Amino acid sequence: QDYTWEDHGYSLINRLYPDVGQLLDEKFQVVYNLTYNTIAMHCGVDTSVLRRAIWNYVHCVFGIRYDDYDYGEVNQLLERNLKIYIKTVACYPERTTKQIYTQFWRHFKHSEKVHINLLLLEARMQAALLYAL
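^ SESN2 protein, sequence as received from the core. Prediction below:
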């Protein structure tokens, strides 16, 4: 059975520490929904599928998988270098180098890469909270 933030983690943390669940949920939602609707030089792009793939890949790295998500999306949307970067930052942040950072999405803006960092760090925090709760 799935143990998700939305269904279980949020309510449990609110019972243990009132109001923190709301603050954490807002923090996760702000980062998850953050978009300029651009990818590299393309404007007006719906990036929700990409953001969901990154979020779910981070959870997958930590052993959290969802039955209702098609993980084939992850393989279609996330190139190998991006997966390496995500896994390195999420699991071994001390091993992150500029070379790993520059190897993925070479034609993308730094702000888009920073958004990837925000997504993966918040997804990592949520995964850790799910395990702790």
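The chain has a mean pLDDT of 92.
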